[in-house]
Amino acid sequence: MRQYLLETSVYPREPKPLKELRAVTATHPRAMMGTSPDSGQLMAMLLTLVNAKRTIEIGVFTGYSLLLTALTIPDDGKITAIDLNWDTYEIGLPIIKKAGVEHKINFIQSEALPVLDKLLETSDSEGSFDFAFVDADKINYLNYHERLLKLLRVGGIVVYDNTLWGGTVAMPEESVPEWMKPGQHYTIELNKSLAADPRIQISHAPLGDGITICKRLY
Ligand SMILES: C[S@@+](CC[C@H](N)C(=O)[O-])C[C@H]1O[C@@H](n2cnc3c(N)ncnc32)[C@H](O)[C@@H]1O
Known about the structure:
Blueprint: H1 2-8, H2 10-13, H3 15-27, H4 37-49, E1 54-58, H5 64-72, E2 78-83, H6 86-98, E3 105-109, H7 112-121, E4 129-134, H8 141-151, E5 152-161, H9 181-195, E6 200-205, E7 211-216
Helix pairs in contact: 3-5, 4-5, 7-8
The protein binds S-adenosylmethionine.
């Protein structure tokens, strides 16, 4: 079913992304720990709907969602991609190079928060990004949200990954495995906060581990 969806919607019009993304997951199965292909398919759709040119990605890992974004935005587009680890980015880098999209990526090895703060100090950064994807440390999602709402233009979109947190957001406390409890707590806080935020329009899509799409309204 998933394969059928992949092959019948976004990708036939863009044969290169599917080929390259398959290459990443075939060569590096750990990339499957990242963004799920069905969430990725929706992301590609959103990127094209907002004509995304300047994007931010927080949480790169081996680069599945990064490659998808790089293959979707125009040739003169730019992604500010932030991750604590260079070594995992390096795993996917040969595929990014093979796909001919490395020039669209500005990879920054760092904690994400100081990078966003630094961007906000640059006068032309506020309101200049079209799209952001957040797939990193859950504890900081609300901190990222405040900064990203300033960095995105009105009408721009931020997508948060893992907003179902393995389904635990809807489970009674006692049935949640101990190791998932901190993530459950932060994700419930995030979901409540996004739902009550008048600055955004939101849609929660139960794809993969759940993604929440937020559009900046003003
Ligand atoms: C789930 S993976 C990202 C998966 C990726 N989006 C993909 O499609 O494969 C989470 C990543 O977030 C990074 N990360 C965690 N905390 C971070 C932080 N505070 N700042 C920047 N990156 C962080 C981790 O190093 C890890 O590579």
